[in-house]
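fyi for ur records
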Amino acid sequence: MINAIGYKICLFPNKMQEKLLYKFSNISRGLYNMLLAEAKRAFYEENISTTFNYIYSYYKVIKSREETRWINEMPVSCSIQVCKDLVNAYNRVFNSDFGFPKFKKKGKCKLSFYQRGDRLHFKENNYVKITGIGFIKCQKDYYPDFGYCNPRVSFDGKYWYLSFSICGEFSDYFESYNTGIGLDLGIKSFCTVSDGTYFKNYNEDSVLIKLNSRLKSLQRVISKKYKINKCGSEFVKTKNICKLERRVKLLQRRIHNIKLNYIHNYSISLVRTKPEFIAVEDLDISGMKEASNNLSKSIQKLMWYEFIRQLEYKCAFYGIKFVKVDRYFPSSQICSCCGKRMEMPLSERTYNCDSCGLVLDRDLNAAINIRNEGMRMLSVV
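which gave:
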């Protein structure tokens, strides 16, 4: 059972509405940077902690100044939410592994702004009312007309989207379940299932290989153009460079969407096999990405964190138990038949047990061990 379900719908604004969407996004970005600069100054110079009351009082001061009157062109609710977002970003630094809040650079950050949930209204199932803009044509479908949580308008480089969630209790339990499964995430194959199923590494897809090679060539052209147009120690951005950078953003968007489509297909196909539980390793993904070895670059191209996140909420929706096995559990070194442990370097892809004579693929053996460990953890609980 999950407590909220999310929607993300495409918007089709006209030219005037699109200008306002850009305007609100840029004002939100500029206000965030101003508040972040003040928060840093107050912390380092006056030792004042970043609280909502302090940030909001500073916002009321700057919105009355003549040089920053442009903040008032955006709805007040969006500005207040920017203050809350900054405070939440500061709290995440101390409560989790998130880094220190950074300034949002124009052209580099994602364009987005907040929309009041109680002012969000759908008309004729294909028009939505955005505060300060009016009714915008949207993707036609039926959407509930109440209880919206945290609506946001965002831009992905090509289309505008409205995302929101609806709180409640949502579930779709199966009538019967099969035996549990274990998953071993890897590079040669993206995921190996304990029942013998293999999911290929989507980076080996011919379409993605062509798109990545095209992306590299475009980035080389942009780098050369920057060097040609360099004036002293400064780089000059010409209109041709801006056009090429837009092509790069659209290519990156397409590559990301293809990868995301693979991840959704992999996760939902596993859940629809109706397992009693799904066990995965609690991997230190951020540490593996930053490791100074030959595998770190390959790991950076994979979306393991997103895959595990999707599996977790889909299991909760369908009533499947989700187990995370300890990251130090030696799944690749234990024989899945007799339980003997032996050293297994990464170069060996087949597990040969000296005790019972088991000959099995390394990843499949690890997936079976993860399933057995997940079963043990559930029985203890």
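The mean pLDDT is 90. thats all i got for now
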